[in-house]
Amino acid sequence: MEWETVIGLEVHVSLSTKSKLFSGSDTKFGSEPNTQANIFDLALPGTLPVFNEEALRMAVRFGLAIGAEIGKRSVFDRKNYFYPDLPKGYQITQLDFPTVGKGSLNVTLDDGREKKIGVTRAHIEENAGKSLHEEFSGMSGIDLNRAGVPLLEIVSEPEITSADEAVAYLKKLHTIIRYLDISDAIMALGSMRCDVNISIRPIGETELGTRTEIKNINSFRFVEKAIHTEVLRQQEILEDGGRIIQETRRYDAERDKTSSMRSKEVANDYRYFPEPDLLPIEIDDDYIEAVRSELPELPDAKKTRFCTEYKLSDYDASVLVSTREMAEYFETVAQEGGDAKIASNWVTGDLQALLNKSNLEISESPIEAGRLASLIARIKDNTISGKIAKTVFETMIDNPATVDEIIEEKGLKQVTDSGEIKKLVEEVIANNPDQVQQFKDGKEQVIGYLVGQAMQLSKGKANPGQVNTLLRDKMK
Amino acid sequence: MIEKTVAELSAALSAGDVSSVELTQAYLARIAKHNATLNAYITVCEKPALAQAQKADEARADGASGPLLGIPMAHKDIFCTKGVKTTCGSKMLHNFIAPYNATVVEKLKTAGTVMLGKTNMDEFAMGSSNETSHFGPARNPWDTDRVPGGSSGGSASAVAADLCAIATGTDTGGSIRQPASFCGITGFKPSYGRVSRWGMIAFASSLDQAGALSKSAEDSALLLNAMAGLDLKDSTSIDRKVDDYTSSLNDSMDGLKIGIPRQHFTEGLSADVEQVIRDALAEYEKLGATIKEIDLPNNHLSVSAYYVVAPAEASANLSRYDGVRYGYRCKSPIDLEDMYKRTRSEGFGDEVKRRIMVGTYALSAGFYDAYYRKAQKIRRLIKNDFNDAFKEVDVIVGPTSPHTAFELGAKTDPVAMYLEDIYTIAVNLAGLPGASIPAGLAKGLPVGMHLVAPDFAESKLLNIAHQFQSNTDWHKRKPPICDGEG
């Protein structure tokens, strides 16, 4: 039987507000346990939540960025359950009236296909603390630094049909969130987390199959692998005539298997009800427009602009806009260096390779945008060839001197003196009579070989264009 | 001197007739003598109180003044007090010392009051007789075999027996007004949101409101002046100008329109209480007020709606008492679930557990619409009833309680106890200000008259109460325990 997969994603993103969602505690990651938990975070009696408006602004930014309906009246609710890292015994979240309503995301798949994936909603809620089960000789430790850190839970429509689509959606979400500067969204640190709901059904079937939920996956790659393995598991069960149990599962990356955590059939009843300690949040059009006016240019718009303004290919533009930092780096290089195409090649080529090799972000690049721009300016004005530029680039990594100083110091300036080039060309013609004859007989491509010989003689410094022209002249 | 009102004590302090230290000593002596019987205080703060009194006297010597400077008072043990145990009447918090002051406590501290101690109460404010306190019931100074009412029973008993000049209380369904009625004192509950709830241990967040138990309406006005106001730490507190609540105390009653709800003078109301209230109403007529019957057609639904909303909120509010971070924890739990179960089974009393179960049930999947949502609808109907009534009258008057203080142990059926608050509960559901003032005696026991005003009409309400007290002396009657003492 042919099967089709239906996936919905729930993504939790930690909003990078300075203080927590309902208390003044710091949200910095990685501090000593319980140093960022005040009396509210500890749920001492009589303490009350006070809403951090910064979280609202960030949620609205996100909503506007995905073209979503913005809830003009958001209501907080209590979700009740007992757990030691949930000090109040309830989580404050938004059930019926989330801040962000229906929106959508355009993703580009590996095969170049575009797909629009719906976002059902995004709501603001508080994070729980952490239970630490090691190091306490059979007991558990509780760290409440994370308790109350604001989260935005982004829920997709069940419109994703493959692992590839899921990953493309997550990457796009990640890009937008980083552009908006509302979260670090680092999956490895838990500031972005993903729950995957998966079901399968025979192709053509309109009813959804029974779904399972895989919780807390913390990398794009694991999302992809978890989906593959879970889809196979469900297929095997159904093809053997079994039935899928609606349940929560965990993904074990080492074994590449999912396993059952708890069955939804005996799941908690969270007994949601409106949070009486907080008033509904009301916002008006002026507020929404003010947030809209602060939005940065988003990746899709930037990509379109790069294609038209800099005449870049679709592919190059999408690579360059994949992070806001890279796009900004590129624009500096293109504008100061005077050639967008060369700038694009360098940023996506040599620079990216360098960063990958040393595992650096573009913001940590050993060669800042201004310096790369000067290098490109020297290519553009024929001071050096593209090939020599690579040597200069290598030198620049550890050498803080300016591009011009490096070129000067190493004597790498391109030879454009026609007298010198004439000598080189004559030498090449004299040394390669066979190839010259072949060219004269119409074997056009031999010119490449001859130019290469001349370049070699000049140790790369000759202007290849000039060499080419002169060679052709001489061989007429 | 200790029987005097805050207004009178304040005048005596300014005149130099007495010092705060002397007053504090007198109250402490009185507490030492009667608290063993009345059990009005859970904690008495002898040394800190004297130190605060000393400070108040020094401040006065340095030129400071203020109506509450140096006044010895008590706080209901539901308000968190920095460095002093706050138990909320529960075993669960028998050892809890907050590292912060409730906003109410902080404001009254700033106003210069002296804290004599923390008063007894029904556990987590759940009760109408003070009998659910883990620390034993407080008693009624008018008859120590009788209850002082609840949940602010300790505060009412202490004020009535002159164990303090004035006290704070909280009122979720009648917890200030009913004990005030039973103990023959003035109880005042402001509009919801008028006084900050920060640091006040939550029972039912949308209903809880702090207020005063005092010897006169004027004293309640003085306390409210210091307590009221927006607090950024409580999102439900109201950003609205705070009146000087004493400024209109002497306004005339001429032309005042009093509404008496038909539904509050029906079966269930004891005849002698009814007579006292009718006599008191006649007093208002003499002062120029007119009286008219009104309808609160949904009043009969208020107790049912309340016993869904309040337990529902309480069931979540009390989840934090889990033995993990503070308060009571059971001995040697074998695992997490065992710790939760035994901590909460052993740490909470029966009434608290009953309400947690009722509230949990009301919020459960499949029951939410039938209970919680419906109760919220009734709440709106009740609010609308009041809105309609206040189009015709300035104030609504009736009995605070269907009868006078009952004997300890007399009410064993929880539902009978819930019906204690039949006249007061609707006021909390609607968020209105309400007061109970002494209106007379029935068989030697105090009867409280219940006054209800529109939202934020505290000044008007206190004015109406004060005018009754300026023309009668029921609020000056003292319980027998005070006989022969100055």
Please state the second-level CATH architecture of chain B.
Alpha-Beta Complex
> Mean pLDDT of chain B, as a whole number?
97
Count of spatially separate domains of chain A: 3
Biggest interface, which chains? A-B, 29 and 43 residues
Oligomer: heterodimer
Q: What name is given to the CATH topology of chain B?
A: Amidase signature (AS) enzymes
Strand order of the largest sheet of chain B: 1-3-2-4-6-5-10-11-9-7-8
Topology readout:
The complex is a heterodimer of chains A (476) and B (486).
Chain A: E1 3-14, H1 53-65, E2 73-74, E3 77-80, E4 90-93, E5 103-108, E6 114-126, E7 130-132, E8 141-143, E9 150-156, H2 163-180, E10 192-202, E11 212-217, H3 220-239, E12 247-252, E13 257-263, E14 273-274, E15 281-282, H4 285-293, H5 299-309, H6 314-320, H7 324-337, H8 340-358, H9 369-380, H10 386-398, H11 403-409, H12 418-431, H13 433-440, H14 446-457, H15 464-474
Parallel strand pairs in A: 11-12
Antiparallel strand pairs in A: 1-9, 1-10, 2-15, 3-4, 3-14, 5-6, 6-9, 7-8, 10-11, 12-13
Helix pairs in contact in A: 2-3, 5-6, 6-8, 7-8, 7-9, 9-10, 12-14, 12-15, 13-14, 14-15
Chain B: H1 6-15, H2 20-38, E1 41-44, H3 46-61, E2 72-76, H4 103-110, E3 114-119, H5 153-160, E4 166-171, H6 177-183, E5 186-189, E6 209-214, H7 217-227, E7 257-261, H8 271-286, E8 290-294, H9 302-317, H10 336-347, H11 350-363, H12 369-389, E9 395-399, H13 414-418, H14 425-430, E10 434-442, E11 445-452, H15 458-471
Parallel strand pairs in B: 2-3, 2-4, 7-8, 7-9
Antiparallel strand pairs in B: 1-3, 4-6, 5-6, 5-10, 9-11, 10-11
Features:
heterodimer; A: 476 residues; Arc Repressor Mutant, subunit A; 3 domains; three-stranded antiparallel β-sheet; 15 strands; elongated; B: 486 residues; alpha/beta; Amidase signature (AS) enzymes; eleven-stranded mixed β-sheet; 11 strands; 38% helix; 13% strand
